[in-house]
Amino acid sequence: MKTLVLTLLILCGLTTAWAQTSSTGLRGTVKSAGGEMLPYAAIVVKGTANGTITNAEGRYEIGLAPGKYTIVFQFLGFQSVQKPVEVTTGFTTLDATLEEQAFRLAEVQTKAGNEDPAYTIMRRAIAKSRFHQLQVQRFKARVYTKSSFTVTDLPNLAEMAFRKQLKEAEKEANFKVGVPILNETVSEVSFTQPNTYRQRIIANRNSQGDFLSPSQFYNASFYSPTVAGAVSPLSPKAFAYYKFEYKGTYREQGPNGTPVEVSKIQVIPRQYGEGVFRGTIYIIENTWAIHSLQLETVNNIGISFTVRHICSPVQGVWMPTNQRYNGSGAYLGVKANGQYVRSLTFSEFVVNPAFVEDIEVADEKKGPPAQTLSKGDIKGKQFDELVKKQKEFSTKNLRQLVKEYEKQEKQARKNRKEDVTVVRDDSLVVDSLARKRSNVFWDSLRSVPLTTAEVRSYRKADSLGLVREVKAPNDTTKQDSTQNKKNPNKFALGQLLGGHTWRLTRRSSLIYTSPLARVEYNTVEGYSLEGALNLRYRAKVDSVNRFTQIPLGEWNIGGTGRYQFGRKQFVGYGLASYQYKTTRLALSGGRYLYQFNPDNPISPFLNTLTSLLFEQNFAKLYQKDFLNLTINVSPFKERLKLSGSLEYAERTELANYREDLKPWINWRNRTYTSNRPENAEVVTTAFPTHQAVVLSLTASARLGATQYTIRNGRRIARRDNDSPLLTVNYRKGISGIAGSDVDYDFLQASISHSFETGIRSRLNYQLSAGTFFNDRALYFPDFKHFAGNQFFFQQGDVVSSFRLLPYYQYSTAQRFAEGHVLAEFRKFLITQLTVVRLIGLKENLFVHYLYTPTSKNYAEVGYGLDGLIPQVLPFFRVEVISQWQDGNYNGLGFRIGTTLKFGR
């Protein structure tokens, strides 16, 4: 009770405090000369870090203490307007009317055969882009964001299938097709060079209930080489992807009353589509900083995004204080659009001391500077010292200067014992009162006034919430239902059928997987049901905040049971594991059925479909009674991954459980095959029941420095690490221990690599080789198997999987070499057409090769088209593959594929 009272007092106190700070200020409208309201126009209090933006109706409101101010009104494509005003008591009304921007052409005009003036402007802006990024040493700001997401259309099938649920969602959660979902967030953010970003959410509100909506655009900078995976017009590679056209220049008041010249540059992609922008960017003359921009791009599933930034000077640095993002498109048949606006108000802003002095940039293609520096003149020199001696640099020299500065800063961080492999260090903390703020609090805090429609939406959401609160005490049926939803530990019959996780204590959970979730069929077991029960206990948890918990020690103990209706047997295994940070120890044992290839070339789910519908039983299984001890460690800050296992097993060959098996569809030209795989290297793959003790050791490491990000204290290796991955595996069949009948030594090594060859284009390869240098005693489960495929549907890793190779035909007990190459193209054949790229289709070429003593240099050469059904099923692809052996053509095959994985 005391805690509740204290919380209410704090809430009331904060509300009063905020209301007091916003009791005076300005409000008004911004419109064009034609009388049209200008949505999301920027309002800046000159000489301060204060500012806001108008809402969708062109209205604004900003809290200011009594005094005299100069207010700057900005809108993309319109002339900025400055107005003096005095704030006394209450809110003063100050409206603004903006005229469309009038451009004049520069003295140097584009003539036939001459280069467009846009190119010299962009060369200077590109050369100085990293300078502008490094200019900001640190800042603190209050950020107001508002987003809306509207589902505009649902597929007819979805509306028919979920009509009841949609009506309940409209009644209970204020969701309806065509009605926007609103979300507002107020955050306190801070940034420190080179890579630390902190965010604390102090208020969050949603028209359908409280939820958080972090945005990928928080840290987007068009000074970076890429923005959300697309090439920035200020990237060093920009000229390979864009053409530029000069559209004119205008003048406006800059910081400290100094006029600035702003040039309008049209950004024209050489081939529009995924990975590039089109639109307009405004560049400030002499400083070559971004003044504003409006750019559009499209992602890989055909969703288009429009980005608008308006920058304002903060201590001489032009910062994107007003940001707006729009997105629209369709995915899986669902059509939607979204809008996101962001407004920053800086409370602290520190310029990097080394970048206080501005630099003039000379375009050496137009005329070199008075003095050009060599690499020796720059190496080892301090950035600010060189700038003091020489104010003007060529674009090449400036890039060299910045690289030398970053090199020295990186070494200084190493000397301070900082981890230079961390390229991002982000954290998100949510204030405990963030989702409990009152309307009075929001009215005092909100930077952008609500529109009439938004006010209506919030009122409806609030009234629905009130109705639910009033009904709950009296409506026992709904009360029980609500309590059951809120109390996941309460037992219900449906949990036995669908599975459930019971939270036993703050650190322990009981996880139940229903047998109905794993209904499968194969010709060895017949139909089978599989269920599992697992107890998880987190021995120690490092809580960064209530949304992020890092387990430092975790125990798991449980078992999996499987009933085989065809064999009328029960099999299963138990598992106990302990994980501490990056080290995991696991002990398992029991009786279970496994595919001969431990990588499961065909999933149980897919094999169920092929067996029942197409009379093709591809999965070949054997029984293993086993005891296995496995340990995985990742030392040296996860730069190296080591895995070791020791297993004792009794392995038994199995046959189909019946000879007269019948599928659902009886194909005239097909029949179920034996469970004994066919192989070209041995006369028969049959084996007697035997014991095997097998030791397996695996080590993998990147051949380059691994980079990491830190999110809320958790260290995560970057997935886009483009250094090659080397993996070595040694497997030993140990004889003479526990009656083991195997005796062999197998060693293999592989190297895999994936790197960009252009925007949205990649080259992927994997090369492997290995040999049995001792093969005194081994059986078919010990052979080296390969990722084959014999079904028209291809799943799994698109790089390392064969498309037409029989699953076990070339499995070997001798030696092998295989290679896989996949080249992905943003623009190749049909993707030369812009309309094809815009709907998200992507082409690729691939080659797969296998050598074993019997494979006859087996090879596949193929062409693939990703995005088989654009915007509906974008994760499917279609492929055509030619098959070769010893250089001879063996036929053509077709595959429909996906990277999604089904089953285990």
UniProtKB/TrEMBL annotation:
Cross-referenced Pfam families: CarbopepD_reg_2, DUF5686
InterPro entries the UniProt entry points to: CarboxyPept-like_regulatory (IPR008969), DUF5686 (IPR043741)
Keyword Coiled coil: yes
Lineage: Bacteria, Pseudomonadati, Bacteroidota, Cytophagia, Cytophagales
Name of the protein in question: DUF5686 and carboxypeptidase regulatory-like domain-containing protein
Keywords, sorted A to Z: Coiled coil, Signal
Signal peptide, first to last residue: 1-19
Source domain of life: Bacteria
Coiled-coil stretches: 391-418
Region (Disordered): 469-489
Compositional bias (Polar residues): 474-486
